[in-house]
Design brief:
binds NADP nicotinamide-adenine-dinucleotide phosphate; elongated; single chain; alpha/beta; about 40% helix; ER; 15 strands; transit peptide; 3 domains; enoyl-[acyl-carrier-protein] reductase; Rossmann fold; 7-stranded mixed beta sheet
């Protein structure tokens, strides 16, 4: 047996360059062959070829942290630990080989690994390109339009040598938020710059503002962010709809992943943060004239009212409001049957909503009396309104507020302007303001970190539930039409959950 293997390796010695070229041009069939060829080639002094062999070897594992030139052929143990991390061969398995490796000739060492490798039966997909470049894919658009028309799936390579201030990231999950779709459509308040940084044929944007990544490697071994950590974007319009990314350290924020699911970590930084900021910063007039306002008082049982209560932001506001001792009136749209509507109301009540009403009820003449009943004949004030919708719903929301209250518009789901009776401004002194999380994040970086940690703690303690999710698996072979359709559907109402890309074998 050993003799046969010996002959194989000799064959490799004499056909080195051609063999390697051939191997590079065919897709990988067996990780063990990779191990065999890599080691054998190394042993016969083909160091110069090893970078090319990374391409083949990467069938088993991304090779971003692999520098073949540092492998000492005479040190079996070091050899093994590198192999173990490269090929995901369990260390125990390798250490068994190690005894035989030491006893064997160089040629035999390679073959021992080949024989023992549990990957030898497996067919493994090629994951990196020439010279150890990580193969990545990203959704991109090079002009604005409907997602199904303009999104493309672009394949690109990430260099194994990243700067000391950078990290290489693998995506775990990234939601499809309304703002992402509006960005693609070109209707969002700020537009990212179109660039050719990832080698698209025309300048493009990678959409996706939110998500969570696992750190694959760091440019600096002493970096505060380590391999295996989870990070979320620290900057707006990061471009999360991609399988891998290289980011500067200050573009990401490390989060403590303990007890968190990737889908939870991926959805904290936009919707819960919006609800958190609004509830903690906005509220009724201070009563001193001008536009001064105070936030609702924690633990006071003060009321706020919101439309779009079934949205990600709405659900977060219900839960945070409850946790902070506030009371909420929540407006939702009717479902397709009374039973479904009741089920939705019950769900929001279970999250902590005090009152849930349908939009029809809210827009009816009877609402005024019903509201008076809820607020103890108007003696309890409603000092804050959260407008997610616009149009008639926003007008009715403004009318429901008490004197001196503030209505914060943060969304425009109905795509209709907000019309306000002048009397509300003059006689009721209602304040109408807008809210944009990106601006807050830019202006209060430390506050953002504190808020994210606070929300993560609440999730970990089981006090904060994420929104219902509609998971969209994204693997290496997932095609563009599947991904683009999911994005296109993201703005449709009455969804069973928020679309979220969940990255698998990428
Ligand atoms: N300003 C900011 O900084 C900021 C931050 C976060 C979010 N937002 C905005 O907040 C809004 C909600 O975002 P999200 O991620 O929480 O949403 P989401 O979870 O995707 O849910 C969308 C919500 O919008 C409702 N909706 C859709 N079309 C509607 C219509 N025509 N009339 C009334 N309601 C409609 C849906 O109601 P159903 O459940 O009945 O279908 C659903 O509850 C978006 O406009 C988003 O851009 C703004």
């Amino acid at each position: 047996m050993l003799l046969v293997h010996f002959v194989v390796v000799l064959y490799i010695q004499f056909t080195s360059r051609n063999t390697i070229e051939k191997l590079r041009s065919t897709s990988c069939t067996s990780a063990s062959h990779t191990v065999l060829f890599t080691l054998a080639s190394y042993m016969v002094g083909l160091e110069g070829q090893l970078r090319q062999l990374q391409d083949i070897a990467s069938c088993a594992q991304p090779l971003t942290s692999f520098n073949p030139l540092v492998i000492p052929t005479t040190n079996g143990r070091r050899y093994l630990s590198i192999l173990s991390s490269l090929y995901e061969i369990p260390k125990a398995m390798l250490s068994r080989s190690h005894h035989s490796l030491r006893a064997l000739s160089r040629t035999g060492r390679a073959l021992a690994v080949r024989i023992d490798s549990p990957l030898s039966q497996q067919t493994v997909r090629r994951k990196s390109g020439p010279y150890g470049y990580t193969q990545a894919k990203a959704l991109v658009f090079s002009k604005n339009g409907e997602p199904s028309d303009v999104l493309q799936l672009h394949t690109f390579s990430i260099s194994p040598s990243i700067s000391s201030k950078s990290v290489l990231l693998r995506s775990l999950a990234a939601p499809i938020n309304p703002a992402d779709i509006n960005t693609i459509q070109g209707t969002y308040g700020s537009q990212p710059s179109f660039t050719s940084l990832i080698g698209t044929s025309s300048p493009s944007v990678i959409p996706g503002n939110e998500g969570v990544f696992e750190v694959v490697s760091t440019g600096d071994p002493a970096s505060p962010i380590r391999k295996g950590d989870w990070v979320i974007p620290a900057v707006a319009q990061f471009g999360t709809w991609r399988t891998h990314a290289v980011a500067e350290l200050d573009q990401v924020l490390k989060i403590d992943k303990e007890g968190l699911r990737a889908t939870q970590a991926a959805t904290i930084s936009v919707n819960p943060s919006t609800a958190y900021r609004i509830l903690r910063a906005y509220g009724p007039s201070t009563g001193l004239g001008g536009i001064g306002m105070r936030p609702l008082e924690v633990g006071s049982g003060e009321w706020f009212i919101q439309n779009g209560a079934n949205s990600g932001v709405g659900r977060a506001a219900i839960q945070l409001g409850k946790l902070w001792g506030l009371r909420s009136i929540n407006i939702v749209r009717e479902r397709s049957s009374p039973e479904e509507t009741e089920a939705l109301k019950a769900e929001l009540i279970s999250l902590g909503a005090d009152v849930v009403v349908t939009e029809t009820q809210f827009l009816s003449r009877e609402w005024r009396d019903q509201l008076a009943e809820i607020t103890n004949k108007g003696r309890d004030q409603i000092g804050l309104g959260l407008n997610c919708v616009g149009g008639k719903s926003a007008t009715a929301l403004a009318r429901s507020l008490s004197e001196g209250a503030t209505m914060v518009s943060y969304g425009g789901m109905a795509k209709q302007p907000v019309a306000l009776p002048v009397g509300l401004l003059i006689f009721k002194d209602i304040r109408f303001v807008g809210f944009w999380l990106s601006r807050w994040n830019q202006q209060d970086v430390a506050g953002r970190k504190h808020m994210i940690n606070d929300i993560v703690d609440l999730i970990r303690q089981g006090k904060f539930q994420d929104v219902p999710l509609d998971e969209v698996p994204w693997n290496w072979d997932t095609d563009i039409s599947t991904l683009a359709q999911e994005v296109q559907g993201g703005l449709q109402g009455f969804r069973r959950g928020k679309g979220i890309f969940v990255f698998g074998d990428t």
